[in-house]
Amino acid sequence: MLPTHFTPVPLDKSYRLMNHGPTVLVSAQHGDSINVMAAAWACVLDFGNTPKVTVVLDKATRTRELIEASGFFALQLPTQAMATLTCGVGTDSAKDTPHKLAKHGVTTFAAPNSGTPLVHGCVGWLVCQLVPEPHNQTAYDLFIGDVLGAWADDRVFRDGRWHFDAASDDLRTIHHVAGGQFFVTGKTVQG
Amino acid sequence: MLPTHFTPVPLDKSYRLMNHGPTVLVSAQHGDSINVMAAAWACVLDFGNTPKVTVVLDKATRTRELIEASGFFALQLPTQAMATLTCGVGTDSAKDTPHKLAKHGVTTFAAPNSGTPLVHGCVGWLVCQLVPEPHNQTAYDLFIGDVLGAWADDRVFRDGRWHFDAASDDLRTIHHVAGGQFFVTGKTVQG
After folding, report:
1. Given the DSSP bridges, would you call strands A117-119 and B161-162 parallel, antiparallel or unpaired?
2. Would you state the CATH architecture of domain B6-184?
3. Probe site for chain A from B41, B46, B174 (most A CB atoms < 10 A)
4. Where do runs of H (alpha helix) occur along chain A?
5. Across residues A23-30, what is the average pLDDT?
6. Chain B closest CA to A17's CA: distance in Å?
7. For residue range B36-78, what is the model confidence (pLDDT) as tens digits?
8. Which percentage of chain A shows pLDDT scores above 90?
9. Strand, helix or coil at B43?
10. Of A138, A59, A43, nearest to B18 (Cα)?
11. CB contact under 8 A, A21 and B16
12. Do B56 and A41 touch (CB under 8 A)?
């Protein structure tokens, strides 16, 4: 069942979910195997009606194997309330800790259409199809995805914009620095 | 002359300047021509002793031409106090506005050793050598750089870590959302 507040975002506005550079959770599934990891090195690559993203995925990760096998993944934005969960799935590997998701309280639901596993509690989700670029993947651990669909929690993102100020601080996105320390997305200023 | 508070950051800590996903200013020089643009789509690609970054540079930009001609560029982190400047150099092009830097109050100084132009008022600077990847540059506007040297303003970054809480909010980094709206880097939470 889809979470309450799970609302479609038009493709041409989906870059705004990640434009401010938050840390993401990366999820993927192949066969019955689902995994989730954290990645601070994720970025918008293109916008408009053919949005793209990049994400750096270490060769040691189980999630990378699932993406290479299935050709699909999701990037999603954890909240301040999920900082400990994010740190946990970014530290443990499913290769050493088979019950990693249960250990860190991660539950998933299937994205509409694609069925890609998405993480409960996040405030933005982007389902992506891998754009195979073997040289980038091998030399730089750099993966490119075409964004196929996007959704957001309408308590904090609606009409194509974030509205963090009007909601609980628990729903703010987070930005990893190092060693489990994060900055919370702060106040708005106009340039 | 180098700015006060301009302090070297060890290469293996330089990724921490950008790990939280702030918007950057991109600067470059070829011959006597210097330019500066804003980029929200910049990201760490690797850390350790061979740190790398990515940045997306539109084909229409003058700064991209300078980088392709010289093989060098710098990424640097503007502050809350520089939100209007950042918006200005991200909107105007030097192709239409030859005195773009003066118009927006941008002044530069030469980086130690390389001489790459760096922007006064920023709180972190990374001098990079272009890693030529013609396919990425042409197909995706995606540029990769080896970080050769890094510096930070020691009022907000020292001992390998950000210390925004102890300084003026004017020195906080910023994250572009859309249309000249930015989020300021917010409070610290431990995961």
Report:
1. unpaired
2. Roll (2.30)
3. B41
4. 15-18, 62-70, 83-91, 100-103, 134-140
5. 98
6. 8
7. 999 999 999 999 999 999 999 999 999 999 999 999 999 999 9
8. 99
9. strand
10. A43
11. no
12. no
